[in-house]
């Protein structure tokens, strides 16, 4: 199943907290779809200001396809200004900046992709009304959120939208059952063959199709941290559940039981999402000061781990043994101790003998780190150095190997601090000792530092040290990225994100 969110993107900026959260209906629906395990994409215009770069990083971290997006050159991102005291939010206004692009004109390729999607989410805030006719003939469900404002509930506006959609969503907080029936009858959704989903805040949601209504159950909001985006989470889960049961364009959405079950599942999903800050997390602290960035070495600065893995595989092969795929995955980001213990387990040989054989192989064929430096590493470290941000390398490797790698790759001049978990902490990740040591030597608090990691153990160590962890994703290794603050596919992406954080666009917030 492929889901596409079509429309604008915004940040909800809490001015009193100095924290903003990415969102917007189309973005929220795409992210929720990805979290529900389906292929998801976002189609919209991303400004090339610092806010747009953070939005891009957030979408990428949620595994949302951004290939349908355009970048608005010299554009500005839409900000919804608010304050928040505990659970109470106060709306202050909308700031679109000097060059906001609501929604780009769609090309043939994007239009074809959208028409082929199983589900498309759009809304009144996305400013896509004029292009909805392009989607006529779509095979899947086109869901449109009309929000809560009266200006989007007129004959003129409905005339632009309803002929092209399958599901109309409305927010009618506090509306009684009789008020809802009056609303449905007034606009004759049944005669238009339009399904309608109405959410009512803490009251039970209502679904209507061809004059028949099904009541759901209100989301359990106990333990809620933030209800931002709850309606989008609810609608996404509801539509996806019905589509999994076969709902398609031009067909009935399902039986009463299927619809009721979908409403219940949607409420449960929305409740889970309400336990996150913002619509789906990823806070952007635009006033934040970053004094240091700490890098893991193997897999982050140099692609050395495949070399180490191959050395272990070759050593085991000389004994007629092989590693399982799960065992190989566990090697990435692990300590020498773990690797040697694993080698003993696989070969069944004495630890001292195996360690001697492995070390002899390693020193007979030493790794030239300059040949495995990850593209963009030097540019990233040089940028941080020029930006007066201190740089540390904290690795479970031997101190001599760290220094040799930095020297061979021409990176030593950009690094202020080096810390070895093996030689100086006698502890391997996920123990945070090596990161704590690096922070101490940098004389920097965890809140003023970022850590760049690529492995399960490394991410766990960085989180335990109290810093935000940027994860560099790799095609190899089964990495649990739980706890990572954001995820990236290259150093170039990390550099652009750090530039946005270090040099935020001036919006007079």
Automatic annotation (TrEMBL):
PANTHER family: 6-PHOSPHOGLUCONATE PHOSPHATASE, HEXITOL PHOSPHATASE B. NCBIfam families: HAD-SF-IA-v3. Residues 21-243 form the Carbohydrate kinase PfkB domain. It comes from the Bacteria. Its cofactor is Mg(2+). This is HAD hydrolase, family IA, variant 3. It comes from Olsenella profusa F0195. One of its GO terms (molecular function) is metal ion binding. Belongs to the HAD-like hydrolase superfamily. CbbY/CbbZ/Gph/YieH family. The lineage of its organism: Bacteria, Bacillati, Actinomycetota, Coriobacteriia, Coriobacteriales. The keyword Magnesium applies. Keywords: Carbohydrate metabolism, Hydrolase, Magnesium, Metal-binding.
């Amino acid at each position: 199943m492929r889901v596409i969110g079509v429309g604008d993107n915004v940040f909800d900026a809490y001015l009193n907290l100095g924290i903003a959260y990415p969102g917007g209906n189309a973005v929220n629906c795409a992210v929720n779809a990805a979290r529900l395990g389906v292929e998801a994409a976002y189609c919209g215009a991303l400004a090339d200001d610092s806010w747009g770069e953070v939005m891009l990083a957030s979408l990428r971290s949620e595994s949302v396809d951004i290939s349908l997006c355009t970048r608005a050159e010299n554009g500005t991102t839409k900000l919804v200004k608010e304050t928040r005291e505990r659970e109470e939010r106060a709306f202050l206004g909308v700031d679109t900046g000097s060059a906001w692009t609501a929604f780009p004109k769609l090309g043939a390729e994007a239009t074809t992709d959208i028409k082929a999607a199983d589900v498309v989410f759009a809304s009144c805030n996305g400013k896509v009304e004029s292009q909805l006719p392009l989607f006529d003939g779509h095979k899947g469900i086109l869901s449109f959120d009309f929000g809560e404002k009266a200006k989007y509930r007129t004959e003129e506006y409905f005339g632009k939208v309803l002929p092209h959609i399958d599901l109309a969503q409305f927010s009618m907080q506090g509306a009684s059952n009789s008020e809802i029936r009056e609303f449905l009858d007034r606009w004759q959704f049944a005669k238009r063959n339009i399904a309608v989903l109405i959410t009512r805040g803490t009251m039970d949601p209502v679904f209507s199709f061809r004059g028949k209504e099904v009541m759901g159950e209100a989301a359990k909001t106990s333990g809620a941290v933030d209800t931002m985006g709850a309606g989008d989470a609810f609608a996404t889960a509801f539509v996806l559940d019905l589509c999994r049961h076969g709902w398609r364009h031009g067909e009935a959405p399902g039986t009463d039981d299927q619809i009721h079950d979908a409403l219940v599942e949607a409420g449960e999903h929305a409740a889970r999402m309400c336990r996150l800050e913002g619509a789906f997390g990823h806070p952007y602290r635009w006033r934040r000061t970053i004094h240091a960035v700490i890098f893991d070495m193997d897999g982050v600065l140099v692609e050395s781990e495949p070399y180490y893995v191959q050395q272990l595989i070759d050593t085991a092969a000389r004994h007629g043994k092989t590693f399982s795929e799960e065992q190989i995955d566990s090697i990435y980001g692990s300590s020498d101790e773990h690797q040697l213990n694993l080698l003993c387990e696989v070969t069944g040989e004495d630890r001292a003998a195996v360690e001697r054989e492995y070390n002899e192989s390693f020193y007979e064929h030493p790794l030239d780190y300059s040949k495995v430096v990850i593209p963009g590493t030097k540019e990233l470290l040089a940028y941080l150095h020029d930006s007066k941000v201190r740089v540390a390398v904290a690795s479970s490797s031997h101190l001599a190997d760290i220094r040799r790698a930095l020297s061979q790759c021409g990176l030593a001049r950009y690094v202020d601090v080096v810390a070895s978990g093996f030689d100086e902490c006698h502890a391997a990740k996920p123990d945070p000792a090596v990161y704590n040591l690096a922070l101490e030597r940098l004389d920097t608090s965890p809140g003023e530092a970022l850590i760049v990691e690529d492995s399960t153990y490394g991410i766990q160590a960085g989180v335990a040290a109290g810093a935000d962890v940027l994860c560099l994703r790799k095609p190899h290794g089964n990495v649990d990225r739980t706890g990572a603050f954001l995820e990236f596919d290259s150093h170039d992406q990390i550099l652009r994100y750090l530039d946005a954080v270090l040099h935020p666009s001036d919006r007079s917030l």
